[in-house]
Every structure is written in structure tokens, then in C-alpha cells.
Input
Amino acid sequence: MAQQFQRTASNVPMSISVAPWKRLHRLLFPFLLAVLLVPSVAWVIMDLSVWPWDQAWYGEVSVDLYYVLRTEPLKWLSAMIAAFGSKPPAIAYSGQFAVPLARFFGRVEPALLMTVLACQAGSLWFVWDIGQRLCQERRIVSAAGTLALGSAPLFVGIGHQYLAEAPQTLAVSWIYWLALASPNMRRPRLLSGLMAAVALGMLAKTTTPLYCLFAGLIALCVLLRSGVPVPLSRTARWLDGALLVVAGALLALTVAWYWKNFVPALQHARISASSEIAMAYGRRGTLSTKLCFWLGQSSNALLADGTILLCVAATVLLRVFQRPSNDLLKMRPLSPTGKLVAAAAVLQVAAVLVVFSFQDNEETRYLVPMLPLIAILVMWLLAAVGTSTLAWSLSAALLVQAMIVNAKASGLGMGKWVDSVWLHPIHRDARDYARISAIVALTCPQTTANHYAIIGVEYPSLNANSAAFFTAKQRVDKGWRCYYTSLGYAESNPERAYRRLFDTNATFLVTESEDDQVKPADAFNAVSLPVLRRVMTSPDFAIVQPPIDGVLIFRRKQ
Output
């Protein structure tokens, strides 16, 4: 009788225990998002680095657009279309709306970086939902793909930099999501999504099609072929119309920017890829050597040293303690669209690596928009293998990797585990930040507003772009600014560099003393020392006393 009762009880559905477990499943993505991004939020709030070069330029334009919107709103649209001139401006477009958050953080930099982290959060969500659609709601597979993206050393490092790769990665992830979701989307919603995603991608960087062209074509074919006929309420129709208007406006802004700046943008892309200037960021080589380089850098961008060993160890442990009957993911075969999206990801990864192997530039941050594609392929492979052991072990290994990567970014060591030039330890020393603030305050009083000053060196914490960013921030509070430029981008002719002081009608020259300049000089500082020596003996300049922390400031006599 007791045995019969046990058999009967074992057949009763455990509804009371299953429901809480399902609710916990729904919290898995918010948990992963917190684990992957909260350390970066803390990093950007506490870091006191001076933004160099590209980051500072993006920050300057973001602050300038906000200032125009606040003080001269009728000129704002024209300022948006003219922004940068040679670089697509998506990051500045979004960043301008975060500038008011500087009142909360005490500085503009954390406010702007919050838009970067928002883009990363969006990318992680798209990858998560792609996994849900690829793998029929198997959350462990989605978790593995999300962790593959969010724990990647390059992804974490770029989250701390104000660079265009963050919105570009968001656009690429969005387009792949649209390609997979397109068979179940109504035509107006799919059209507005495609318009907005393409606009964002092209406003982020001109190279965006290299990462997502095939996925975009899949979504476009579905759009042209059919739509999902669903009866709509008036509210739904209004929402579809509003989304189409917003997406159309964003696409129109994209077209307007490229109409005005297409030639310089194309020239900038060409020079950045292969030219003498690009050689400062890479080297020439054969196709095979360059392919090996980019394959190695892709591995470093995605995995910390030892992650594969962690995954193998976790797999062995799970195989020992897991029942064989529980090892299957029990998933349905991939849909035809899912197979096409996976194939598109394979082709785009191959295209990225081959195209990069034909250029001189070796900036590894260009690999960031490729990381969602690799995450998609990871989920596809897990679905193909069909074992939960591998999915759980990979997720566990990547979770440990996320902790190691963020530990290095927090300054807790782990250098031997992570090899990424973009993963910078947090900088808590405020001296460089205070120094450039003092330089801008001294060289940009209201009496010399709108005048030029030249920064005679190109160092990460002291360069023309950084100074220009600081003077743009100053204008928000004080109402005036100055303009900063260099002795010439990668200038090699001392005479031409010296004449630039007069051609720009520069009021000040800011440079480091001879003892403090880096020797031997690199390609970007080749004329710094010759110009300093000439200015010190020229009757046209007088030194401003006292020096600021080893920095010499000369004022040109009018």
C-alpha cells in the first residue's frame, strides 16, 4: 500500500515547485546583465583618466552639440549635419543628451560613458534573445552566448572608452536580431526596425556593412516577400506609424550627413585602412601573416588565457556528477531562417578577417562589432552539439572569465591572464586631470576667447584633442571656449611645424620641457623637441611663469 502511494505521488505534477523555478529563469538575463555591466559602471564613475585623441574628440563634439542645442536651438540641426565632417557622428549624437548628467556625476566623462554602457546593454539583450530564438527557449544556451560577448576582454575594455564601436556593435546585433525575428514580425514593425538599425550602423561607422550585410539582406528579403497579417487595434497602428516616423527621421538625418560629408568620410576610411598614416597603427605583410595576426587578436579579444582549460575542467566535473539522461538539451531543429542567420555570421566573420588582412591598420578595436557574430556561432554550435553539459561548463568558465577581466580592469592584477591593449586598469590619480584643467584655464581666459593655442606634444594625457575637450566643457559653464590644435598630424618637417604657430595665429604654445619629453620621439612627436628649442630662442615668444607640473607655456607676442 505504501509503495502504491509512492508511485501515485510521484506522478503528481510539482506545480508549486516548478513555478518559482520558472520565475528564477526569467531573472537569469537581468542577473547576467548586472554581473557583466555593474563593474563597468563602477569603473567609469571612479576613473580619472584624461581622455586621449579620438575619445576626446568624440567628447568635444558631444559637448558642443549639447551647447548649441541649449543656447542656439535653431542652429542645432545644421550642427548635427556638420558634426565631425570625416567621421560618422552617432556616438556624439547620443552623448549630447547625457551631458546634463554631469551634474549628478560631478564630471562629464562618466555621463558620456553611460551611453556606451547603454549600447553594450542593448547588444547583450539582442544576443540573449537571438539565443532564445535559435535554441527554443533554452536559457543556458542564451546565457553562454551572452557571457561569450559580455566577458570578452575587448568588449569590457571598449566599455570604458568613448569610442564609436559601442553604437556600431549595437547596430550589428540589432540587424542580426531583425534577421532572425523577421518571419514573425509585421511588415511596418520590421521596416521601421531595419530603417533605424541601418541608420544607426551607418551613423556609427562607415564599415558597418562589413559585419552585417548578409543578415540585413535576409531581413530585407523577408520584408519584401511577406508580412505577418495580424489584426491591429488603433493603438497598435498609431505605434507602428510613430515608429516609422522616428525611423524615417533617423534615416533622413543619416542621408543628410553623408550627402554633406561623403567625400571626406570616404577619404578618412581609405587613409585609416592603408596609407602612411595607417602604418603608425600597424604594418604591411603578406595575406597569410596578416590572417595569422587577426586570428590571434580575435582569440585575445574573446578569451582570457586559461578559459578553455576552465571549460574543459568544468565539463569533466559535470560529466562525472550528471546523469546521462539529463545531458540532452532536447531542442527542435533550427528553423530555415536560423540556419541562414548562422551561415551569414560565418560568412561575415570570414569577410572581416580577410578584408582586415588586406589593410595596413592593425587597430584591434575594429574587432568589437564582430564579437556578437562569434557569440551567435557559439550558441549555434551548442545547439548543434545538443548537450547541456557543454553549455553549462562553457557558461561557468565564461562567468569566471568575466570576474578575471573585471578584476584586471579594477587594478587587482590578473595581467598574466588577460592580453588586451584596450583593457586599462582604473586610473585613480587625479594629477593629470588637474594639470590639463589648469593648462586650459591659463591658456583660455575670456580675453583670448575663440583664439587658437597649440599643444606641442602628442601624449595620451597631454595633446590637442584632450585640451579641446576640456575647453568645450568649460564653455558649458562659462560661456566661452578656445581652440586647440597640434603642430601637425604626424608632422615630420620642423620648419613647417614652426610656421604653423603663425599660420594658425596661435596665442599660446604648450609643450613639455626637454628633459620630460619622451626619447626617442615617435612619429607623432618628431618635431616637438626642435620646435621647443627654436621657440626658446625666438624673440616672438615669452615663457609664461611658473610652469605647470613640468609643462612649459609660451605666449606669442602680438
User: Anything to note?
Assistant: The longest helix spans residues 234-273. Residues 27-409 form one domain. The chain has a mean pLDDT of 86. The beta strands are 452-455, 483-486, 506-512, 541-548, 551-556.
